[in-house]
Amino acid sequence: MTICVIGDAPIGTRAIQALAHAGVEGVMAMAASEVQDAQSHPPFSADVYLMALATSQQVQKVLTGKQGLLRRASPGSTVIDLSSGDVTLSRELAVQTRLAGHHWLEAATSRNPADEANDSLTLLIGSNEATVARMSALLDAISRQHLHVGDAGCGHATALASDYLHAAHLITTVEAVAMTYRAGVTPQACIDAINLGAGRSAVSEVNFSRWVLPGRYDSGISTGQLRRDLRLARSFVTTLNLPEGLMKAVFECCQPPEPCPADEDDLHHLCDRWLSKVPAHLPPPRLTEIRAPGS
Question: In angstroms, how far is the first alpha carbon of the chain from the final one?
Fold first, then answer.
């Protein structure tokens, strides 16, 4: 199986390294501009094209048009979209890819805190059963785990849903820490209590202990990445006939010009506005300070 990685998104570098570690040889790498430059770069052939691009619009630009990959790739090639994708556009690209005689598979990244802590990768797969079966060994090589959630568009839809909940849990958990602090509870004690009950989440179990409470900002996920995915999620939701929920509030909490971090900052800086007056260690209230009502 010959593999070509197109684009320079970080996930492409990770895929190349993972494939090399798995003993896969001869993996090609190309810039997106090279694919469409037919005069400088003659037609090339691969069995699988990994699209290491940031957005669905970039994937569309590489695939379509007179010099697009769909016209130049060998019949029966498989296109694997590794971008943070637009659900509707991804479905349109899947149709075009299949009509051109190729196979489509999207492998959307699930921003799993445990994965970020261990530098591993979980992928949410949108494709048909036959393509997933054929690409299973490759997916095993580039990810810690992968889950087939449906056909084209479903991988991106579930990734956006997960990113929305990631942001929501980050905001609600830090708000809970700030609330209990005012009742005399240390931030660590609050997180320990949350993790014993129904309110726990991957964010409270991993993000807070590894990044938020220690004040570390090296998760590898930027605020800009989260904002972009929230914009995609909100845009998709507006096309659906759903009751008004919390997405608008979560989206607005993550946007400037509020006292928010810059796009390039680690996403855990989103907690700063709640934690700015909450010390990491707080002595418990003295018993003499606790009085019964009316005393």
Answer: 80
**Which among 4, 12, 14 has a CA at the least distance from the CA of 34?**
4
Q: What is the dihedral of CA 199, 201, 203, 205, to 10 degrees?
A: 90
Distances (CA, A) of 271 to 2, 169, 199, 225, 274: 45, 11, 18, 16, 6
The 10s digit of each residue's pLDDT in 122-181 is: 999 999 999 999 999 999 999 989 999 999 999 999 999 999 999 999 999 999 999 999
Q: Are 171 and 272 in contact (CB under 8 A)?
A: no
Domains of the chain from N-terminus onward: 3-151 (3.40.50.720), 158-275 (1.10.1040.10)
In order of 42, 145, 188, 217, the CA distances from 132 in angstroms are: 30, 13, 43, 36
Query: CA–CA separation, 173 vs 159, rounded Å?
Result: 21
pTM over 0.90: no
Residue written as token pair 């909490």: 253
**How many Å apart are CA 67 and CA 74, to the nearest integer?**
14
Helix axes 154-181, 223-237, angle to 10 degrees: 120
Tokens 């003295």 found at: 286
CB 74 within 8 A of CB 45: yes
Q: What is the DSSP letter of 74?
A: P
Q: Please state, as a whole number, how many other Cβ atoms lie within 10 Å of the Cβ of residue 97.
A: 23
Give the span between the Cα atoms of 125 and 81, in whole angstroms.
10
Separation between Cα atoms, residue 274 and residue 66, nearest integer Å: 52
